[in-house]
Write a structure and sequence with these properties.
75 residues, alpha+beta, 33% helix, 3 strands
Length: 75
């Protein structure tokens, strides 16, 4: 017997004191960096986006990866 699960997570990171420090060019670099971390963990990244003071990540976790460990690796 096999099982199938699909749980999507929306992870939101904000800057300290909601300071507007994530400029557009810097965000693109940050998004690529985070995408690499997620792909290296065998997770599927659906979307990553954000503005000057926060980012959103929508991802599906590989069954062997704990959400807390993924978040720890990102930060």
């Amino acid at each position: 017997m096999s099982t199938y699960t699909q749980i999507l997570y929306q992870i939101v990171f904000g800057t300290r004191n909601r300071e507007r420090i994530l400029k557009e060019k810097e965000r693109e670099k940050l998004f690529r960096y985070i995408s690499g971390i997620i792909e290296k963990q065998n997770c599927h990244l659906y979307r990553i986006n954000g503005i000057e003071d926060h980012i959103h990540i929508v991802t599906h976790l590989h069954p062997t990866i704990a959400l807390a460990n993924l978040v720890k690796d990102i930060i």
